[in-house]
Amino acid sequence: MAGNGVFAEIIDGDVFKYYCEGEWKKSASGKSVAIINPTTRKTQYKVQACTQEEVNKVMEIAKAAQKSWAKTPLWKRAELLHKAAAILKEHKAPIAECLVKEIAKPAKDAVTEVVRSGDLISYTAEEGVRILGEGKFLVSDSFPGNERTKYCLTSKIPLGVILAIPPFNYPVNLAVSKIGPALIAGNSLVLKPPTQGAVAALHMVHCFHLAGFPKGLISCVTGKGSEIGDFLTMHPGVNCISFTGGDTGVAISKKAGMVPLQMELGGKDACIVLEDADLDLAAGNIVKGGFSYSGQRCTAVKVVLVMESVADTLVEKVKAKVAKLTVGPPEDNCDITPVVSESSANFIEGLVMDAKQKDATFCQPYKREGNLIWPLLLDNVRPDMRIAWEEPFGPVLPVIRINSVEEGIHHCNASNFGLQGCVFTKDINKAILISDAMETGTVQINSAPARGPDHFPFQGLKDSGIGSQGITNSINMMTKVKTTVINLPTPTYTMGKM
């Protein structure tokens, strides 16, 4: 159970503590932030409302801890990460329980997220040893006009203090995707979890605590974004920000100053279906891509662009699969569970009502109870409808019928988002041409968009983000190149044996 057993020290009464200097603490504010269960719409947990003074303390400690951590042997850093991964997987049940109650993630998927996170940490440890264990050697006479009088040695060094801000939908997995690379590279880490998902993140942080990482190296502060959000992202002690979320990221990027940014800010992932596509394959992936975790994924299929000649057949196949989706509480492992908040449900409903007013075809009746919205496929959607462009982050999927590949590509590229997209066709030549033409960070051919596997590059264009993620890219992003040049008194050349 959450907050029990080895996790007993992370809670005081009914309020979970924050983590600083290797200890679980109560905030001096005396205030807490309520976490609402999306299913019951009642308070499920409470977390500390940290103050700006406590953030200052965390940053000061993180900076000091990083200096000694950078001197820790690479193999030792990796060893501790492997230990944390094992502890995390060992305690998957209570952490998954938090995910079910905080963000209404289906129970089975919640366990999968925790296990996947442990695997990510272990892979990061191994990849970090490979990447950071080697440098580069350059000689000066490879550039015109130079003799061999300089030897250049390059290596990767840590940036310093990394601020990690994961989103509600994967508060454990997308936290460790930032924590692992930061730590293996020799950085310290300050985590600001989302309110919905904070308790799962606190349990995850405790697994790192149990693994024996140095005090102060990892911190986790909770509280209202309005009170400590800007203060964190603009803090002079931060040397890098890794953020996953929505529009807030745009504001952060404008305020952050001269620190490296790694940002993934959502998408409107388009699925283009051609006449020669395997329509059963396409329909299955559309339902999986559009409705898993109630569509609350940045890589969810968010608009289907299908050739008119096969649209009727595809829509019928998708409708048949949607009809089989189960709807209900996450504890029952239902396919469709309540969306994260009432405000989210209201936003989704606004998109649906706009489509209704503009005569979209409802393939199912619209139904909502509290935060629970039944899966809805909207056919004959036109570009003048909000749902054609805005990201619902819910179980509502628009279908736009197109008359040419060019029309589909144009709609995809007209979006201000550019995270992922997918194309279904049996013609690999068409697939590659369309992939090259789509202005998205990734294009999946004959499969729904997906972030993983976690070592694959993951990036967005336009308003979908800055930089690239994936284990290798994240490690490289959280380091910088250090160069040492050896100047020789006379040119030197290696000679083959005569």
Automatic annotation (TrEMBL):
Keywords: Cytoplasm, NADP, Oxidoreductase. It catalyses: D-glyceraldehyde 3-phosphate + NADP(+) + H2O = (2R)-3-phosphoglycerate + NADPH + 2 H(+). One of its GO terms (molecular function) is lactaldehyde dehydrogenase (NAD+) activity. It is found in: Cytoplasm. Signal peptide: none annotated. Residues 24-483 form the Aldehyde dehydrogenase domain. It is an enzyme of class 1 (oxidoreductase). InterPro entries: Ald_DH/histidinol_DH, Ald_DH_C, Ald_DH_CS_CYS, Ald_DH_CS_GLU, Ald_DH_N, Aldehyde_DH_dom, ALDH-related_metabolic_enz. One of its GO terms (cellular component) is cytoplasm. Its main location: cytoplasm. Its EC number is 1.2.1.9. The active site is at 264. Belongs to the aldehyde dehydrogenase family. This is NADP-dependent glyceraldehyde-3-phosphate dehydrogenase. It comes from Anisodus acutangulus.
